[in-house]
Please model this.
Amino acid sequence: MEMQQAFMREAIRIAMENAVSGRGGPFGCVVVKDGRIIATGANEVTGTNDPTAHAEVVAIRRACQALGSFQLEGCEVYCSCEPCPMCLGALYWARPTAVYFAATKEDAATIGFDDHFIYAELERPITARERPMQQLMRAEALAAFEHWRTNPDKVPY
Amino acid sequence: MEMQQAFMREAIRIAMENAVSGRGGPFGCVVVKDGRIIATGANEVTGTNDPTAHAEVVAIRRACQALGSFQLEGCEVYCSCEPCPMCLGALYWARPTAVYFAATKEDAATIGFDDHFIYAELERPITARERPMQQLMRAEALAAFEHWRTNPDKVPY
Model:
């Protein structure tokens, strides 16, 4: 528990540093393996013009580079705030062993970072969403899937 | 509609090319502004050891670089497959005008790319999730939020 608090303290320190420096939103993330920090990330959305550069995504990408793997096997992830749906999706694809967070998404909403809209949209069927997506050319797309399915040399994941 | 089909055809071509080349999964994405393709992306997860490098995330990042903006204002996004929760989150943060897709997430599941688990988890409260997240040190994290809230020089987004 003391170790966990030390790692979370570092994630929060990064969040604060990011806010104070003006580089981006007040969010930090730390990835730990075998009791050692292997990567960190801060929110870099406005600084790098990348809407996907949330602290978690930045830290996951760096940790995977450090490990030479597209999976965070045996890793723990410490987030200064509860991950948004994008980051939660990224975490599920990366498959760390455990995820910890400090502030809640409701806390984030009170300072203007509101992902409630995204959560609500994800729960609705496509056609009932506020920003509906339109489907076209499914049959053509399935050809690429069929090639994947029947290819013996693929790298599945 | 003819324009839309041409753009989707390109997204599907990229998906097929990616599958045939073995560089990654059979997914492609195209970002369009003012009737012109400004960025494309293919799935690069296994090729670049980046679990966040889905076609949509790759294309969104490149399009934002091309525009010098962290928002896809006035853009349309064409995905060869229905976006996973991570990509859908990324799309909501990037705020394009419209999103089109071809194959469905059920089609993707039949060839081994199953994001149903992530959708199901997102709908559950944190403590009821199959992979629960643990909260700690909320009070400490709120200090960074308070700094953000009261900082007159921040770049909100």
About this structure: The first strand of chain A starts at residue 28 and ends at 33.
